[in-house]
Amino acid sequence: MKAEIQKVEALEENRFVCVHWEDGSESRFPCVWLRDNCQCPDCFLDSAKARKLLFEDLDVNIVVKDVALTDGKKISVTWPDEHTSEYEAEWLKKRCFSEEARAEMRKDLFLPERQYWGSDLQLLELPFEEVLCSDESAYKWLCTLKKVGIVLLTGAPARQGELVKLGHRIGFLRLTFYGPTWQVQDKTDANNVAYTTGKLSFHTDYPVMQHPPGVQFLHCIKQTAAGGESEVVDGLHVANKLKKQNPQAFQILSSTAVDYTDVGVDYCDFAMQCKQKIIDIDYRGQAVRINYNNATRDTVLDIPAEKVRPFYAALKEFDDLLNSREHKFTYKMKPGDIVTFDNWRLLHGRRSYQSGATVTRHLEGAYADWDVVMSRLRILRKRLLGRN
């Protein structure tokens, strides 16, 4: 970002510093924010990119004593206690308080753009080994995962342990009560409905956790000849449809705390209990996360009796939309395929298949948190594009 300063001045009884840019625009910076973000060695630890200035030492009513321009590329501020702070033009321009600049910063830091889809999903496929070895392929993988919500990696060895490599590629995997990785196959006395041959309805994984895993990996090691097809649906897209179609149902699902439970023994013994809204919304009322797993939805429903039927009606309408032909995408994994998807956005399911004398279908699963994925995405973006 090229930024040149034409003039700088103090405004409103020296409580603001106004920067006049060469392109004719202006930026007003509150003095308290400027002092809080002084970049000098006494106030900022550059090696950690962290603030050293203690908040208890910050005067929230501070004003500037003097402000000056240096070579059009830097401003110098002198404070009442004679402390001096310098700010680079590009650093300031990027942190302008205008709505446009703040929107650009949000886009730069969080990549919020989403591409919604239904049965028309164009599933991106990338070679597994390229994602492990090529920054360009890894960047394409993670960008698409963030924007579309799902990517298929192909050609991985059909054996356990490959997901650990994928975890190392982004940083690390998330440990849960089912282990660092877990085996999806028909098991005697299954402690999870996924470990059976029956149909799995659309669900997100682990809404029984207060912070469900953000990303899920499923590696196909063995596939049954008949049945076992995978299905996915864009839950946020469907939630938006529900909001338009039946605002009251959307309001019920985004405000009712539903109990989830999961009790058993696997990696260790566990007794999980949590309350989640089926649809999480942000401050704008927009759907940002789906928490829906019918298998682990508790028999406990902690709402007044008169609200029970309206809740079920709202959930039934949402579930019907999830299962409509226009919204769901069906595919069948083959050995060596790894599907990676957004567990906060997508709901996934599986068609039933026949059990046999031996294991006929085997997937290995793992989780990662969005914090870890986004960290790697930002690092790759800076490395490849020079963007923060």
UniProtKB/TrEMBL annotation:
Gamma-butyrobetaine hydroxylase-like N-terminal domain span: 12-92
GO molecular function, one term: gamma-butyrobetaine dioxygenase activity
Pathway note: Amine and polyamine biosynthesis; carnitine biosynthesis
Names of required cofactors: L-ascorbate; Fe(2+)
Record's keyword terms, sorted: Carnitine biosynthesis, Dioxygenase, Iron, Metal-binding, Oxidoreductase
Coiled coil: none
Enzyme class at the top of the EC tree: oxidoreductase
Pfam families membership: GBBH-like_N, TauD
Function: Catalyzes the formation of L-carnitine from gamma-butyrobetaine.
Matching NCBIfam families: carnitine_bodg
Family: Belongs to the gamma-BBH/TMLD family.
UniProt name for this protein: gamma-butyrobetaine dioxygenase
Organism: Casuarius casuarius (Southern cassowary)
